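Dear U.,

For the methods section draft, I wanted the exact inputs and outputs in one place so we can describe them consistently. I've listed the two proteins in the order they'll appear in the manuscript figures. Please don't edit the token lines directly; just add comments below if something needs changing.

First protein:
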Amino acid sequence: MNTDAARIMPTETSGAQAEEGVEEGGGKEVRAQNVEMKLIQRESEEELESKLSSDIIALVLRQPRNHKKAILYLTLTALLIFTTAFLLGYVVFRGTCELCEDEGELVPIDDTALPDHSAAVGVMYMGDLRDMLKKYLKEEKIENTIRRVSRSTHPSGSSEGNELAKEILETFQRLRMDHTWTDSHYATLQFPSKTQRNALWLVDAEGKELEEIPLDTTDYCAYSTTGTAEGGVVYVNYARWQDFDQLRSLGVSLRGTIGVARVGGGMSFAEKVRHAQQAGLVGLLIYPDPADVPQDPRRLGLSSHIAISEHVHLGSGDPFTPGFPSFNHTQFPPTQSSGLPVIPAQPISANVASKLLSQLVGSECPRGWQGRLPYVHCVLGPEFSGGDGRKLRMGVYNTMTPVLLNNIFASIEGKIEPDQYIIMGAQRDSWGPGAVKSGVGTAILLELARTFSAMVENGFYPRRSLLFVSWDAGDFGNVGATEWLEGYLSMLHLKAVAYFSLDKAVMGDDTLSAYTSPLLVDLIEGAIKQVEHPKHTGQTILAHAESQGGWKSKIIKQLYLNSGAYSFTAFGGVPAMELRFSEEARVYPFVNTQLDSAGRLQELLQGRLGAVGRTLAELVGLMVLKLSHDHILPLDVTCYSSAALHFSSQLNQLSAQLQARGLSPQWVFSARGDYSRAAKTLQEAIQNSDIQDERMNRLYNTRIMRVEYYFLSQYVSAVENPFRHVLHGRGEHTLSALTEHLSLLRSHPQLFDEARFRRQLAFFTWTLQGAANALSGDVWNIDIIR
């Protein structure tokens, strides 16, 4: 049989069969009738495929007349080769790229750009990730969670609060996060006394009680000092510094009196109480005026018999472990925050305020102080009408209680830089139902966790880790979040990329506010370009803001003390942001009351609670995606150059007065120049760098992440001045305190304290110079001040 006709692979033969072979020409042959078989070595599948193709082609060439048979052989061969190549390519491609249903184009990975990973990880286009985020976010889930969370009161330490913590932990576990855990702390919280309620009395000149003014037992100011206070009553407007200055200029006697202040005015309760005690008052009552808080129940207003509760600790965290974590194993010496008040404070309703203020006599109120209390002619006090020397006595009997706090964590681990964290958090506890205070934030947090988990299941691989946190004891001044910050402060500036607070995220649907670190402004601009306004269909949030005259002035706000984001930046040195939708025309009045329910919030939003919550979740989600996707962190390191330049110009305007006192602003000018050059140089280096160079990416990102940390003053104690940030913090070391003191050179030069100013100027100058040095990188790149 001719070898061109066929090739037959041999099967294994026994020894007997082999012996029957006949030696011929140096090779073995096995003969049978009309059959000849050559024994050959086993060939690979690839060789067989190649030879098979060659044989078929040869067959076609040698038998050109059999066209149909040739075409059939060629067709089968082509189909076999195509199928084999497709299956082989699919297996290889699947191992080097991400799989994402139909979510868009995929980018192959360069193995050399990855750190030591066992397998290459694909990177999706940002457009695909945005589409995936929008696909998986569900507004109905947000609304359902808000209703579930706010079905009853759930203060920290209560059985309801503990049950909610358990539900959230189980939800995280069902989402199959990479890690879920509970971080526990012991903290001292203050609650209304169960045995003696807070009260007010009108007393005569001898102290005999004439009338008791009843108060709701649930209304209180956490961390108020306890005991009784007695004195005349003074109306102090919003209890701002300028309000007390105006009262003094009018000759109103303040020392030994009890103040009545309005909610609002851009001031927290804690700031109002601090100003009152520094002005010499012995107590402070705080009420919601109809001019500031709507009080028509028929139009979603606060009833006139409802008070608003809030803590009065001028700080955050456990006030009995300032600067230290409240871990169970720590043995710090007993101490107390300087932010605790030394006078009692109590919230009262508009009705109680009307009863008190309508009986006062004294000077007429300054222009603009008149509220809308019914039947009240605005006078300042401090005397009561009737001339019988009556006074007001207030008694506050709150009790301190040690409570075990539980912060609930879940994380999705980053695939390239897992030790860099993008953190999202929300307060869990609430004194009332807390639809706005805790429900909205918790719902958005869980929805973002669910969405990102689903995205990971469908091909999303974040470069950096995502942390989702449910904080405990937020109503007491972000205690749970601050205690965690204090516990891990030494490492967070190296690992925390940014923090997004979801507290009070939805209080309306008209106006977006971003209380933010300046480093994140570019990030919010990129997000609001892409998200449709929840109230103005067809317009992005950015377009709507610009139509009203400039988006930055409308949206960007400074971080404030009671913000869930404040401690992260002012204490921890981490860029932070808190987003909020609210009403420009109407204020949601029920926060920190027993009326903060999902039904009232839904009524305010005319049935669009889920849609507005989803819009905010999309905004946060887009910023988190950007931070978790980009090789170089998209944070603006040049943002603080303008603040330093503005202060330098103020110094320059007063240079003559400063030089007359032997003070030179040159050191500040040099530090400001060094920082501006360092920031610009870093920005240019990043723009000209190869983003595939992971080592350089790591170096650049480390410097970017530390910018906020650089502005924490190293010259003040974290215990005495926990908010050490020279631009966002509080205290003598801050730029605001320095600027305020500098202004005295013009307004009240006799009050200018040269020694104090020298100290303030030195603190700010060397903090700014330290930031410039650190931003420059290596020591040989640092500009030397001459």
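Second protein (the one for the lower panel):
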Amino acid sequence: MRFVLFVAALLFAIPAHAQGVQQTKGNFEDKFRQLDEVLPDPSTTRNASGAPGHEYWQQKVDYKITAELDETKRRITARATIRYTNNSPDALPWLWLQLDQNIFKRDSMAELTDAFGGPGRRGPKVTLGSGSEPTKLSFEELRRQQAMADNQYGYDISAVRSLAGADLPHTIVGTLMRVDLPAPLAPGETTEFAIEWAFNIVEEDAVNARSGYEHFPDDPRKGGNDIFLLAQWFPRMVVYSDYEGWHNKEFLGRGEFTLEFGDYEVDLTVPSDHIIAATGTIQNPDAVLTAAQRQRLEAAKDAAAPMFIVTPQEAAAAEAGNPKGTKTWKFAATNVRDFAWASSRKFMWDAQGVKQPGAENETVLAMSFWPKEGGDLWKKYSTAAVVHTLKVYSRFSFDYPYPTAQSVNGPVGGMEYPMITFNGPRTTLNKDGTRTYSLAEKMFLVGVVIHEIGHIYFPMTVNSDERQWTWMDEGLNSFLDSVAGYEWDPNMPWTRSLPRDMVSYMVSNNQQPIMTQSDSVTDLGANAYGKPSAAYHLLRDTIIGRERFDFALKEYARRWKFKRPTPADFFRTMEEASGTDLDWFWRGWFYTTDHVDITLDSIYRLKMDSKNPDIDLPRRRAERAEEPEVVGIGLNEQQGLPIWVLENPGMTDFYDKNDEFTVTPKDRKGYTDFLEGLLPWERAAFDRAVKEDANYYVLNFTNKGGLVMPIILGLTFKDGSTEKLNIPAEIWRRNSREVAKLLVYPKGKELVQVVVDPDWETGDADLENNHYPRRIIPSRIEAFKDEASKSRVSRDLMGEAAGAEPDKKKK
């Protein structure tokens, strides 16, 4: 007994999240089991409802930075004073910083572990050959290799000192640096130190980075011009959190940036004719803008449409001129988690005020910066898309929290930072000097501006951990940008956001669970952007409903504004605020690679037996008469073969006039005895059922994909009417593989067709097994012409050597 009690005590001591539930007999699988063994236990910092706990804390980091851009050398030289406030309950003997530019060092972990031919950094790479097919190395990859070989990238850290001037011991570990403090930083205390650094700016088009410069050699200025997009440009403090301590995971390129909030004062010295867009607001407009530009900027706050701050004519004059000296732009930003900027003499700049009555920032300046290469595409759509984004996203979360929201054109396809985003689409220059753009470029611009500006809400404000869980911001933001996209123009062919868009990924062998760590994901776009977005559409439009989903999402945003949520906080908040148990949904959609494939195998139409032999037996006789005649009897008739009983009189008897369905007194007495044996309530229920003569339908379903999901039915009736029925996913709770459902309709309501998921809401992988009766599968056939072999032995080298040109119309 003592031993048993001891073992029991050990079992109870195991944390709930470490205990699994295992089926050891039979094949039952509980897909509605709670996530208790998966999610971390609630704590005083993160409670069971998904809200911050009463002892929630996070660190604060303030920066004062001075930096200079050397346009000729394409190099940044800078110095920062960092003020670190320890709000944690722990004493910290050292601090960790991120040195993200070190990812471009030739011996960085990212470079050394970049698998040949595998998924990894942004941009095209290689295609591995097989058999006689050669391996293909893209020109972009060749260019990248040459840029990495020709340049020395990464941080040059020249000093790490206390404010008193004493050197602080520091150790660089790849993209991280540990700074040892003279004494542990106690809870509630603050420390300050200075750091000096420089680095060569990468050419973004060559290296495929998240920031860098782009060169325009054909500009009218001698030597051309550059656009500089600067991000991950200064040593930033690593997060120290309640759930992980120091987040000292190497930057490998995929997992983005987890940062602390703080205040920034940044002085940026650039060529005198450059225009800067940056996180924060300009503190010295008199020193960097003309009087006319300052007047326009003020007028833009009340403008009904975007208006130019820097006009096309001013940008063209700067683009063609030669700068004299430098200017220093001063910016300040409060309660932001990062700082990014862009600088170029090529920039036009427009702005429009967005009103938020009662908000902390009642007027937000939506602004865009772009070169002439952006053309009318940018003039027409960039700032308009910023304005639209603020209005849609604020409806789902909170008032936009900052004074500016900026879209900047440059070499980066799309990246986000507090108050500023980098977006890539441009126009095409034609031979006649005009600029035009495709529908794809228009969609790209509107879509990427919505997406990147949306990121200022998630994760620049709701500060999720991008290094571990890309889906927490990219998935939620992809969902909201698709909502905003359909509200912008529902006729635009938006993609990669709805369940129907994710079918090919969800049935593929390359799929990974959404909860996979960011740097381990193979198909980041499908896994971290598309599949979570599809999940939220499914929750909003099908499972929870818009009102409750929107309420829950807004509550999540409100709770975690300027805080750091984890997946458990999101899952718990969505359940708690919507009043819906969703553990089955999170488990299936986020933790497995199951897909949706519900097949409708069969439908039985049932009629209630009246038990009255004078009714039921004639009906059974009529049903028998409707059965096909035995084939042989029909063939006998065709041959004219005689029938014995007809050819021989006297062979008939009782059974030639009465069949097995003939009603007898015994049948009638049995019916009377049955009725007399019923209790009053049973007799009433039975009589009503017989009188109504309803149609009973039993529908048999199989879950072939493994992912439990509501069964959505499109029902068509004989009278031409239709109905849509949503059966909750809980129908699978006792058997997740197969289930039957009874539907009852009045006598005159006869089913003629049933379609599972008729509006393609759930991303069902096989639409053909959704139809009952099965439909003829629609498809197409296309004629093609055989292509001649491209191998050298198949070519007419004799004719080519002689310069002959074959007549392709004749053999």
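Candidate sentences for the figure legend, describing the second protein: The longest helix spans residues 375-396. The mean pLDDT is 92.

Thanks,
Y.
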